Amino acid sequence: MKKAVFASLIGGLMMVGAFLWIGGQEEEKRYYEPRQNQEEDAGGSAAYWHRLRANQVTGKLEVADFLAAQEQVQKMAKAKKAALDLQWEEMGPTTSGVAAGR
Question: How far is CA 56 from CA 29, 32, 102, in A?
Answer without folding.
Answer: 48, 42, 63
